């Protein structure tokens, strides 16, 4: 398996090719749901975002930007007094959320020495799909000496929804990448806890030469793959992960750091471990509530930031 080409090297013709934003090499279960007899997406249902960021005069700036609605981006801001060089980017989508046939693709390249934090403006809702499914591909590239944080708000799958997401990270040996994902159970107040048809999320990390570092998969498909089975979420409703790719600290030291931060948090079951290939460390959090899980993952992110960057987790100003 090879890493995907960076969009800035391809010109613009790739955007017209459905193969660019339609996932391939799908698991059999996911491939069987895709409707290949109709064009991918719906009017406005193919969302694209491509970004290159680089250091410019002591701070990180966007040097290339392409977006296609329903995905779009606020202008970068620099809100961290401890890391004034870091660009903070807020991803938005028009409409209420993902629907059947939606195909999103996001490509972000933090060039050598860049410092980037990418998040979303709000949670991602996934609506019911009587046929087909919604997909999202995220490709992150971090160059030598770059710092790239990707911490979107949670995904909320509605009853009957189907979602497949794939995040692929390509990290230089001297880069630091922090990425996290959170899954909420759905519209609990409407009695829809874990009432979706399919939630499949894959995270893969590579070196620039194509060497695979690790794969992390979350596959839930009620009622066959019951989220509340002891082998999955058990009695908990919220699932979150935090992966840290870096060589700035030994993997065992990072895992201990994450574990210590998480053990101090109430109402969660959490643990950390070293990643394969000495790539860094990873934490998994199961929470009874979204607020408890968010507090735990933020505590872990804060501990990592202080240790690796010498800066605490900043206020992201989301209200």
Highlighted features:
319 residues, mainly beta, eight-stranded mixed beta sheet, seven-stranded mixed beta sheet, 39% strand, globular, Urease accessory protein UreD, cytoplasm, chaperone, UreD, nickel cation binding
Strand content of the residues, in percent? Answer: 35-45%
- Describe the sheet with the most strands: 8 strands, mixed
Q: Which geometry do the CA atoms define?
A: globular
Structural class: mainly beta
Low-confidence stretches: none
- The value of Rg in angstroms is 19 Å
How far apart the termini lie comes to 41 Å
Overall average pLDDT? 91
Helix content: 10-25%
Q: Using DSSP, what is the number of strands? A: 17
Brief write-up:
The chain has 319 residues and is mostly beta strands.
Structure description:
InterPro entries: UreD. This is Urease accessory protein UreD. The structure is a single chain. By secondary structure, the protein is mainly beta. It has a domain at 17-234. It is 13% helix and 39% strand. It contains 4 helices and 17 strands. The chain has helices spanning 18-21, 28-31, 251-263, 290-309; strands at residues 46-56, 59-68, 71-73, 87-93, 103-110, 115-120, 124-126, 134-142, 147-150, 155-157, 162-171, 176-183, 198-206, 212-220, 238-245, 268-274, 280-287. An 8-stranded mixed beta sheet has the order 3-4-6-9-12-15-17-16. Helix 3 runs antiparallel to helix 4 (290-309). It is globular, with a radius of gyration of 19 Å. The chain starts with 17 loop residues before the first helix and ends in a 10-residue tail after the last helix.
